[in-house]
């Protein structure tokens, strides 16, 4: 298996890094050195001697290359716990690990490469000649708590990138450079979309007027598409008595991870980490008949999940998550139509983002692992039928898909939509999930055509997913140059000189009145500077207004994507921009 | 003073009630009997003998009337603590009160009327002849914990209504009856606007699609008015580290009452009970110049305040409060213009509700209590100027107003808008408050024209206030028959028979596509029943479609407020309904 080979290369390089570090820094104490997505790292304790800095990585890299070229063998050896303790008696972190691994009569393994010996479960190349010395690179240094616990000592982590060949490493470095240019945290600041406050805390973004305009554009786009499929907005509070989650089963499953809320009264509240249990209670507030189904609730609302501070990253990973959530309550016979509708909404939305092109996305039909059926709840016949329906829908629609066993949720199978961004990274964004379990937990029911009580099926669906994560993806995908409908500022009206200010204000107000997101720049800066500023802000259209425009009651249109378009009447321009929405 | 006279009447009646109760139920133990807004109550412990039920109130009322007619004097007497203890030795609740009142050498008072003696601070009529025996009524019985503490014994509370004359009592009873008919909790259920769930908890309403449509109509109406004054939407999370409130000063002031939040991480979070501190952090995220001011943020977002379960009431008093919030950051010279704009938004919004008519509202200019200037923060000159500006604005606008000293917030003066509802009750809804304090607490600043740093002034403004409370008021004000723009369902399309279903669906979809809130009733019920249902739901327009309409491609329009309007083309009807928005 390719992945195993790459894994072994990376793991072996972690050993070689440790070996090189000990050569140069004999006082270093070794902690752990695992494989990660793009390479490997190793954690060291350099206390009691010098600590390497970024400049020292070059030298360490050279030392590793030297080791690689010596075509050294990796050889393993089984040892008892007491032998291991003797071998690593001067390595306190290893001793702690040995203590932890040691069961009754358990055996541990050590691996040697060259003069370096490490405690290790194995998974290496046989010989360093299998490692391409041009396909790895020491990447960076970082601080990391021993075992990730902030109560422990802070160690020094050295990261390495490693691939099978130089081309893959170069491609990765190029993608990384491109990603840095597009980093949504940098662009978010430059375009003034969101901010964080020390006083409020990490993972809790504040959206400025421009960021909010983008959020609203996304919410409204989805809403305008899905209202044609009968979705209706509802509104729920962000907290609940814990009773709701005891009933749903989330309390037992996720109790520890939930945000608990306590006020002056005695009630124990919890912040909602998802919206489905609340939505079931709106369904349950009335008697429902088969004639009322499907009932489709939609709401974009924040849910709260605690994440370790170290895992928070810009908008990609936050504590306040705006879910673009939707729940359909329907009869089993309606599943096909309803999932079809969800897929249509997804198709229309991602088409508006030009992300629904062949080769740019695929659908994962996430089914049960049939070898472990006991892991899943719900009737066998429903599962089979539902998995067939899901596969059938994407097949009939001609969408590229893969059926992946074992990816279903325990409560039902799902469709996950995977999208490739402009620099080749893949993201799971939209999803449609069937749920046979929750309706029964909450005793939901409707009266069917025979007059009997029947439990509805629930469909959980997200089009953009978490708005924060979605924004982080599309800010980087578009590099800040968004489609017109999504741009925080769609038009910038620029006056050339004092004499044109009034006309510019007039044009600005006319556009604002018809809900076009427009800004007015009638400052006394030079025209060149104003236009440069507009370009920096990646505004799709600038309307430059001088004497000629004023006289002829026209606007000079400059497009971000198409360059100078020329003079138009305001009506013509409005028609043009509306055609882009 | 009128109020004092009425207070004395009510207080005296509480004594007479206790006297009548002891006549009939000698085993009763007396607790307390204060005056309340519409009369009085008295709490009794009936354990060890019979407890009166609702039917017994008539008899007690008769006994009180009998006492009133005897023209009995109220006479007070000063007693020492030990004398009081002797007098009330068989009255355990009174003994507890005596214990509490007793300081070193303090004197207590007792009051006698007829044969009845009670521990009391005074405030009675001199003689029962001052009481109009036709102007009071025993109202109802309820359970109440001794001292309001649920750890104590549950006592029996008897409520009485009391006024100076029969007309006032009758007017109150009529208003009460009318209010019951309009009760927003009943209408909310009948019109399917909101619901509560036992599992989620009291004070945490869930808004159905129809309730959400009303919320959105309110939010959009305000947004569409205020965007012309430069308000921009922002988005903030519902929690914050407590650091934010330590800085704002709310932690010291309201720490106990705040909802504390605790997750798996170590950070202490708090749910926001207001939005201003969060909004300051968006202002503070960039360097600001005088050219950028005023900056106006608006957001409708839920804040959370814990209320005792017993105080929660439908939407009037909730724990999740959707604030229609706005904050302006401006220079002192801009206050007048900005407050003027807020007043214009209020005027336009309440005009759209037909609530801005002469006699239906007034403005309270809430100023400092000049005798206690030390209670207020901020510069003397700013206060004087700001109070003058506020008064000046309402005067110039010709709005009915009263300047009320002592009603200002500690951080600045304000305008409070008081509205009368359809049955004569008065509600404070909109508000505009100046704030000189918060910007300085957060170190907010902008560069003024001289290049110096200067603190902006903040204006807090709410147009509808809390959406929940606002909805409770207008549901009762309109009795569920809302203006067209606010109606959860604006149009109901009704097919007469099978043959007209397709045409009805077509009309329904055309209206839905242009964002008119429309429902289709193409059920097989009789036409009469369908129309009755629409009337029950108080839908402003019904379009009844039969053979003639289908043939002529017209719609038969029936208006809730104007009766049968007759046949129109769909375009004519759309024009008609749009003119009502």
Question: Can you tell me about this structure?
Answer:
The structure is a homodimer of 581-residue chains. Chain A is of the alpha+beta class and 581 residues long. Chain A contains 18 helices and 28 strands. Chain A folds into 3 domains: 4-182, 2-Layer Sandwich (Threonyl-tRNA Synthetase, Chain A, domain 2); 194-237 and 285-478, Bira Bifunctional Protein, Domain 2 (BirA Bifunctional Protein, domain 2, 2-Layer Sandwich); 491-579, Anticodon-binding domain (Rossmann fold). Chain A has an 8-stranded mixed sheet. Chain A is globular and about 85 Å long. The interface between A and B is large, with 67 and 67 residues. Strand 13 of chain A pairs antiparallel with strand 13 (260-262) of chain B, so a sheet runs across the interface.
- Can you tell me the number of structural domains of chain A? 3
Distance between the termini of chain A: 47 Å
Structural class of chain A: alpha+beta
The CATH C-level name of the largest domain in chain A is: Alpha Beta
Strand % of chain A is 25-35%
- Unreliable parts of chain A: none
User: Under the CATH scheme, which architecture of the largest domain in chain A would be assigned?
Assistant: 2-Layer Sandwich
Supply Rg of chain A: 29 Å
**Average pLDDT number of chain A:** 93
Q: For the report, how would you describe the main beta sheet of chain A?
A: 8 strands, mixed
Largest interface, counted with CB-CB under 8 A? A-B, 67 and 67 residues
Per DSSP, the total helix count of chain A is: 18
CATH fold-level name of the largest domain in chain A: BirA Bifunctional Protein, domain 2
Total strand segments of chain A: 28
Q: What does the oligomeric state look like here?
A: homodimer
CATH superfamily annotation of the largest domain in chain A: Bira Bifunctional Protein, Domain 2
Q: How would the global form of chain A be characterised?
A: globular
């Amino acid at each position: 298996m390719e992945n195993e080979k790459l894994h072994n290369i990376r793991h072996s390089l972690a050993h070689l890094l440790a070996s090189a570090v000990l050569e140069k820094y004999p006082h270093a104490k070794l902690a752990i050195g695992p494989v990660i997505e793009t390479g490997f790292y190793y954690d060291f304790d350099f206390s009691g001697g010098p600590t390497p800095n970024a400049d020292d990585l070059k030298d360490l890299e050279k030392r590793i290359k030297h080791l690689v070229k010596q075509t050294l063998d990796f050889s393993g050896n089984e040892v008892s716990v007491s032998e291991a303790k003797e071998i690593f008696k001067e390595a306190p972190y290893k001793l702690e690990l040995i203590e932890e691994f040691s069961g009754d009569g358990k055996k541990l393994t050590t691996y040697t490469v060259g003069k370096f010996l490490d405690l290790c479960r194995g998974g290496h190349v046989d010989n360093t000649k299998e490692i391409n010395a041009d396909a790895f690179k020491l990447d960076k240094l970082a601080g990391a708590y021993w075992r990730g616990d902030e109560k422990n000592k802070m160690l020094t982590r050295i990261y390495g990138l490693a691939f099978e060949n130089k081309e893959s490493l170069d491609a990765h470095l190029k993608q990384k450079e491109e990603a840095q240019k597009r980093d949504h945290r940098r662009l978010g600041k430059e375009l003034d979309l969101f901010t964080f406050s020390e006083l409020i805390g990490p993972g809790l973004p504040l959206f400025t007027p421009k960021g909010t305009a983008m959020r609203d554009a996304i919410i409204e786009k989805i809403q305008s598409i899905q209202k044609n499929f009968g979705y209706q907005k509802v509104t729920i509070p962000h907290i609940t008595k814990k009773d709701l989650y005891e009933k749903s089963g989330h309390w037992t499953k996720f109790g520890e991870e939930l945000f608990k809320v306590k006020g002056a009264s005695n009630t124990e509240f919890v912040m909602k980490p998802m919206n489905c249990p609340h939505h079931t209670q709106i369904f349950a507030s009335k008697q429902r008949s088969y004639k009322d189904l499907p009932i489709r609730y939609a709401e974009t609302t924040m849910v709260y999940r605690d994440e370790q501070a170290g895992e928070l990253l810009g908008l990609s990973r936050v504590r306040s998550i705006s879910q673009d959530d939707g729940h359909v309550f329907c009869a089993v016979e309606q599943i096909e139509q309803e999932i079809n509708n969800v897929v249509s909404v997804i198709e229309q939305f991602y088409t508006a983002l030009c992300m629904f092109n062949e080769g740019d996305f695929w659908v994962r039909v996430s089914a049960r692992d049939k070898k472990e059926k006991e892991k899943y709840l719900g009737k066998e016949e429903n599962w089979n039928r539902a998995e067939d329906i899901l596969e059938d829908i994407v097949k009939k629609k001609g969408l590229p898909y893969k059926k992946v066993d074992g990816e279903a949720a325990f409560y039902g199978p799902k469709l996950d939509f995977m999208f490739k961004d402009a620099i080749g990274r893949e993201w799971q964004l939209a999803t449609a999930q069937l749920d046979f379990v929750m309706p029964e937990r909450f005793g939901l029911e409707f009266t069917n055509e025979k007059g009997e009580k029947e439990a509805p099926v629930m469909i959980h669906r997200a089009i953009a997913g978490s708005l924060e994560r979605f924004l982080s993806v599309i800010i980087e995908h578009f590099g800040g140059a968004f489609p017109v409908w999504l741009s925080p500022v769609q038009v910038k009206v620029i006056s050339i000189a004092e004499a044109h200010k009034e006309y510019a204000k007039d044009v600005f107000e006319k556009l604002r009145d018809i809900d076009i997101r427009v800004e007015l720049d009638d400052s006394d800066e030079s025209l060149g500077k104003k236009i440069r500023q507009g370009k920096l802000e990646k505004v799709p259209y600038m309307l430059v207004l001088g004497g000629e425009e004023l006289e002829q009651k026209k606007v000079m249109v400059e497009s971000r994507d198409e360059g100078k378009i020329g003079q138009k009447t305001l009506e013509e321009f409005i028609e043009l921009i509306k055609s882009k929405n």
